Amino acid sequence: MLMKTLYDTQLLKWHSVKQKGFSLIELMVGLVIGLLMSLVVYNVLNVNEGRKRTTTSLNDINQAGSYTIYQLDKLVRSAGSGFTGGGDKVGADYAFGCRLDMALGGTQLIPATVAFPTPFNAVSATVRVAPVIIYDGAAGVGGDVIVTMSGNAGLGESPTSFSASPTVATLKLVNHAGVRANDVVLLADKPAASVSPCLVQQVASTFNPIAGGSNVGLGGSYYTATVNLRSVADFTTTSQVINLGQAPNLNMFAVGANNTLMKYDLMQNRQTTTTAANPNPSVYVDDVYQMHALYGVDTSPATSSLTWVAPTGTFSSATLLAGTLAAATSLKRIKAIKIGVVMRTALLERETVSATTLQLFGDTAAPVTVNLAPTTFRYRSFEAVIPLRNTLMLK
Question: How many structural domains is the chain composed of?
Fold first, then answer.
């Protein structure tokens, strides 16, 4: 009997051990708690990832905006170099506002025989020489088109006179100092009742200044004896030769599709199909939503007071590029420009994160209101005042 009692007691202990563990209710509670913790962790990670993407996109447009202003600043500051003139500034008197006649490889580039490609298609086919020109709203929803022009001769910034009338392939100069083989030159007449057309030509690769004499032979890709009915032989001893160097900068900038700032090189042929090797127009900066600009005009040469004016009315592109003496005088009065660019992130947010409008140039009498759409993107504005160093001394 004692043995049976001990056996039953031990069996009961074993049975009790087997009954230890979690009940179904406890397991369900644990699963619910674990699920809630997973949701909390996921939400934290999701919020953190969203903030990370937002911060990254903002950093991207901050860098792109700074880069845009930096690049435009370099081009605008040097605008007018080469054709503004030497100490007497005679270059500006001859070149400012003159119609540009230019060919490349025997094919006329300017005046353009077909419309410029988008977003530059609203720009006039006739291009006139000026350090900077703003085409108000010419890029449509992208804002303004800005044209900058400069030479890079370096060795000689003063115009050179003719010692005798040129022939179709030879320039006869009083001095060819600073002229090198393959330099691009601008032939300009002295303005009379209006500003005469200018002709772009190129010094031959065989030109040797050491050989002496005053003759400068013409040749190369930018040499064509007659462009747009304007011939080298039409110029006389009252004309001037302006050296633009071997790589002049004649560029247009505008915001095109996909929030991209585009550059069009006026010295190159239009590419009807984009090529990876040499597209024209080419992508300059991404994430640019709109670009606008104002002129800084010297309203009183005696006191050198600067007034910011919109590129409209008296300072519209059509008026400034009319080819008249009055228009050339207005071009000389432009001493700076103020550029404003609006950048947009590539990240589409779930909620509205921006206002519907943004104002540029609020500190001037010509503010520009930019409509922002959609407001589920984030926007940043950048502004810069850029002096035209080569026109500061012009009156």
Answer: 1
